[in-house]
Prior knowledge:
The chain is an all-alpha fold. It folds into two domains: 23-87; 93-153, no CATH class. It is 61% helix and 0% strand. It contains nine helices and no strands. Helix 3 (50-56) crosses helix 5 and helix 4 packs across helix 5 (74-86). The chain is globular.
Amino acid sequence: MKRPITAFLVLFICTFFTVQASASHYLLEDVPFVTPEELTALNGASVEATEDLLAKAATQKDRELLAKASGLTLDRVTALATLTDLLQIRGVGPKMALLFQGCQANTAAELAKQDIKVLYPRMKEVNRTHQISEVLPSEELVASWLRAAKNVPVKFTL
């Protein structure tokens, strides 16, 4: 009887208390920062999900090619790619990616360098001003995302 309980506890601890950096992938149609026009343009360039966007916009040259193929501006492709880079952090969704960018943390690598004591008050202010998220995550959750950002594989370079 003790073994199943022990196994359950180990699984529970590993699942809920380990900071992981695996990506949150979304279909672009489910991402609020992609407009319907951008969705059509990106789909025409064979980009249907955030992981596709990240792969096809990894470098400056890739972004230039995607901009040409989609008809979007290079600046917009870059902006979408940086938001997608933040989605690589497990648990970070589109609204949090927008909130982090509003705090000048544009990529997972930039987020990893943030100090929670500076970032969290800035997040509160940005969210109060721009109303990005109905509920702000706890400081502890944001701190866990900062730790997880350090483990995100670099798939995007500015």
